[in-house]
């Protein structure tokens, strides 16, 4: 059994130590927001936060997460980033969006007023195969203007 703290709740899961966090989130905990894209750490569709920092959950073995705080899109509760993505209609198919929102949330929690080059650099780890990057960047700027509540 592996103990995990996800979105403020403690869970015990019966998984091998090297099982990717993404599989545990989706298959054991029913949290389907994070998506499987490449499985190689190259697309960011699986991005979640661990102790406030974005990680590729497809590459993160569940055993390294004992005592650490995992947050997924299900735990955000409609924050300014989510509102801004809606306002800017920053999605086409939506597959990348949970990962984008998580990465943008991490950015604004650590840097509430990022410069343009900081936004672009931070968001560059996540790809959108539909090509909505310009709207996604506008959504991050919008969220920065609104400000994240703690
Ligand atoms: S599915 Fe994890 S980075 Fe692509
Ligand atoms: S909206 Fe389709 S992959 Fe980004």
Strand content: 5-15%
Order of helices and strands: EEHEEEHHHH
Kindly provide the name of the CATH class of the largest domain: Alpha Beta
Estimate the global geometry from the Cα principal axes: globular
Query: For the largest beta sheet, what order do the strands appear in spatially?
Result: 2-1-5-3-4
- Derived from helix and strand composition plus strand pairing, the structural class reads alpha+beta
Averaging pLDDT over every residue, what do you get? 96
Unreliable segments (pLDDT under 50, ≥5 consecutive)?
none
Number of helices in the DSSP assignment? 5
> Which sheet architecture does the biggest sheet show?
5 strands, mixed
| Domains, number | 2
CATH superfamily of the largest domain: Beta-grasp domain
Helix content: 25-40%
* Strands, total number: 5
CATH architecture of the largest domain: Roll
Bound compounds, each kind once, are: FE2/S2 (inorganic) cluster
Q: What is the gyration radius calculated from CA atoms?
A: 15 Å
Distance between the termini: 32 Å
């Amino acid at each position: 059994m592996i103990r995990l703290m996800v979105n403020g709740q403690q869970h015990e899961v019966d998984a091998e130590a090297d099982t990717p966090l993404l599989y545990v989130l989706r298959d054991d905990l029913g949290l389907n927001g994070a998506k499987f894209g490449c499985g190689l750490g190259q697309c960011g569709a699986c991005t979640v936060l661990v102790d406030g920092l974005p990680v590729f959950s497809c590459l993160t073995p569940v055993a390294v997460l004992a005592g650490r705080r995992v947050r997924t899109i299900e735990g955000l509760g409609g924050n300014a980033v989510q509102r801004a993505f809606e306002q800017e209609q920053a999605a086409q198919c939506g597959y990348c969006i949970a990962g984008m929102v998580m990465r943008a949330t991490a950015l604004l929690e650590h840097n509430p007023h990022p410069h343009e080059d900081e936004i672009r650099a931070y968001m560059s780890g996540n790809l959108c195969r539909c090509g909505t990057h310009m709207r996604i960047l506008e959504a991050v700027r919008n969220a920065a203007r609104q400000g994240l509540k703690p």
